[in-house]
């Protein structure tokens, strides 16, 4: 066959497919940037993390920049990066995938569901951009591959934080007490719709606590509530708890970093704080939430002077992690806690009245 005829045939095929390649790149650039934008909004408004928000903003800009830079590369693709070129090639009405809408697309159960769906959408779309941009110039495939792996890393970093953000979206936090029947208290709390429960008993043995915690875990899991252990961080996996709450005394024997390493990034670590300095330190050390108290006088902390609403307000203004007011909170004074800007409150004796 004539060599010139082969070249002409190849050029014709290239030009015939040009519009289709443009449409694929357009669709996947939209899909990738849209998915990244949804996750960016989660970072901004749910996690309130400026650094992560900026990371996704940069990724969206980088994807568009790679497309723009490809505008003068590759036969048949000149102008792909020019303003309006992809838009002109778009055929949304004629797109055979326009009406495709699966059952899973029509429902999201939580922020975690929104996060997972949009991270996967962005990753898959970037893979398409990676493959089809190779037809323009291989180096662009390499650039999209780098973006794809950046998304994988961000997904690993973000997913446990999203999971915990969902679990920490509560109003009332019931803490059981040795003066009451723990399991009865838990059943009552669950019946009242409580979504966060901590098993606290300072007077039973380690073995007794483990047996009790396993029973409590079975009860709580049936209602999809969040179960937190008190002090015993090394039992979290054995019990199947969502995390642990540590006191200041615990932190004198083990670091928060050590606990995090042992129980994993997906588990919740709460820390009791009784001063402004302790609150800042716990937040800086990586606590997922802190309790501040006692706000009012309470039999649970005999002889300890209340820290009051003033400290609670100050802490709320200074940290970006969830803050739980605790200590002497009941039906009469919980309104003051709410007015201070704290929407999370832990209750012990007043649990029955409040829930």
Automatic annotation (TrEMBL):
HAMAP family membership: TMP_synthase
Cellular component, GO annotation: cytoplasm
Residue span, Thiamine phosphate synthase/TenI domain: 172-350
Listed cofactors: Mg(2+)
A Pfam match: ThiD2
Catalysed reaction, written as an equation: 2-(2-carboxy-4-methylthiazol-5-yl)ethyl phosphate + 4-amino-2-methyl-5-(diphosphooxymethyl)pyrimidine + 2 H(+) = thiamine phosphate + CO2 + diphosphate; 4-methyl-5-(2-phosphooxyethyl)-thiazole + 4-amino-2-methyl-5-(diphosphooxymethyl)pyrimidine + H(+) = thiamine phosphate + diphosphate; 2-[(2R,5Z)-2-carboxy-4-methylthiazol-5(2H)-ylidene]ethyl phosphate + 4-amino-2-methyl-5-(diphosphooxymethyl)pyrimidine + 2 H(+) = thiamine phosphate + CO2 + diphosphate
Protein name: Thiamine-phosphate synthase
Pathway: Cofactor biosynthesis; thiamine diphosphate biosynthesis; thiamine phosphate from 4-amino-2-methyl-5-diphosphomethylpyrimidine and 4-methyl-5-(2-phosphoethyl)-thiazole: step 1/1
Co-factor binding details: Binds 1 Mg(2+) ion per subunit.
Family the UniProt entry places it in: Belongs to the thiamine-phosphate synthase family.
Described function: Condenses 4-methyl-5-(beta-hydroxyethyl)thiazole monophosphate (THZ-P) and 2-methyl-4-amino-5-hydroxymethyl pyrimidine pyrophosphate (HMP-PP) to form thiamine monophosphate (TMP).
Chain residues that bind 2-[(2R,5Z)-2-carboxy-4-methylthiazol-5(2H)-ylidene]ethyl phosphate: 298-300, 328
Source species: candidate division WOR-1 bacterium RIFCSPHIGHO2_01_FULL_53_15
Keyword Nucleotide-binding annotated: no
Binding site for Mg(2+): 231, 250
Gene3D superfamilies: Aldolase class I
Keyword tags: Magnesium, Metal-binding, Thiamine biosynthesis, Transferase
Annotated ThiD2 domain residues: 23-157
Keyword Magnesium carried by entry: yes
Main EC class the enzyme belongs to: transferase
Binding site for 4-amino-2-methyl-5-(diphosphooxymethyl)pyrimidine: 198-202, 230, 272, 301
Enzyme Commission (EC) number: 2.5.1.3
Gene Ontology terms describing biological process: thiamine biosynthetic process; thiamine diphosphate biosynthetic process
Molecular-function annotations in GO: magnesium ion binding; thiamine-phosphate diphosphorylase activity
